[in-house]
Design a protein that fits this description.
The chain has about 230 residues and is an alpha/beta fold. It has 2 domains: about 150 residues, Alpha/beta knot; about 50 residues, tRNA(m1g37)methyltransferase, domain 2 (Trp Operon Repressor, Chain A, Orthogonal Bundle). Helices cover about 30% and strands about 20% of the residues. It contains 7 helices and 9 strands, in the order βααβββαβαβαβαββα. The strands form 3 sheets. Strands 2-1-6-5-7 form a 5-stranded parallel sheet, with helices on both faces. The chain has a two-stranded antiparallel ribbon with strand order 3-4. It has a two-stranded antiparallel ribbon with strand order 8-9. A hairpin with a 2-residue loop joins strand 8 and strand 9. The protein is elongated. The structure holds S-adenosylmethionine.
């Protein structure tokens, strides 16, 4: 069982996402538990529940204050019998890759901290020492979509979440294949002059495996030759 706590200023963003498809089934089967927390609940401003303030030194935008985040994380950590890995979503973090996804799936518990505005007061990072993760070299409006990417990719790794027919083993970047996946085909065997490669119709599993391996390597070489190098 993997427990994921999501800390956000916009909890409603997750309601549709968590009630659909594989995720809803995994929650219903008790394979994962996802608890969404509204950061405003930990605001030190009882009247307006503000959690942001202007940056010292000037500049545009607002920052999420340190006290609500630290208090929130400390309290949320007490809500289960073991503390979780604290992950802060930020474009400045480690680029999210499949090996990290696989290791997070085995931690048992993760807390995801979603930023907004110009991000967090630096002391959130200094005090909580989170794992800082980025979902790509671009800037989102908030950490919620990034958190969904972490949830979606991690949950796939929990045994029982995918049926056998949807095994992640052969997926691009995955354990059985750190390369890009080979091309796949289904019926019909020919469409608008585009036939399915003959080897896939041959029934010869050895040949099919060799063809797929070769296709996978060629595709990776052309599109992502960096994947052949060990990660830095
Ligand atoms: N001022 C910040 C900077 O330049 O690094 C960007 C803040 S962004 C507008 C607001 C929030 O969106 C961030 O605190 C973070 O939680 C989230 N976010 C934006 N881009 C992201 C990315 N590529 N990966 C992960 N989280 C991201």
């Amino acid at each position: 069982m993997l427990r994921i706590d999501i800390i956000t200023l916009f909890p409603q963003i997750f309601s549709g996402y968590l009630t659909q498809s594989l995720l809803a089934k995994a929650i219903a089967k008790g394979l994962i538990e996802i608890v969404v927390h509204d950061l405003r609940h930990w605001s030190t401003d009882p009247k307006h529940h503000k959690i942001d303030d202007r940056p010292y030194g000037g500049g545009p935008g607002m920052l999420i204050r340190v006290e609500p985040v630290v208090h929130c994380v400390e309290e949320v950590q007490q809500m289960a019998d073991r503390p979780g890995l604290v992950v802060l979503l930020t474009p400045q973090g480690e680029p999210l890759r499949q090996p990290r996804v696989e290791s997070m799936a085995q931690t048992g518990r993760i807390l995801l901290l979603c930023g907004r505005y110009e991000g967090f007061d630096q002391r959130v990072i200094d005090i909580l020492q989170p794992l800082e993760l980025s979902v790509g070299d671009y800037v989102l409006n908030g950490g919620e979509v990034a958190a969904m990417i972490v949830v979606d990719s991690t949950v796939r790794m929990i045994p029982g979440v995918l049926g056998d027919e949807q095994s992640s083993w052969d997926d691009s970047f995955s354990r059985g294949n750190r390369l890009l996946e080979f091309p796949q085909y289904t019926r019909p065997p020919e469409f608008r002059g585009h036939p399915v490669p003959e080897v896939l119709l041959s029934g010869d599993h050895g040949k099919i495996a060799a063809w797929r391996d070769d296709q996978s390597r060629q595709k990776t070489l052309h599109r992502r030759s960096d994947l052949f190098k060990p990660p830095t």
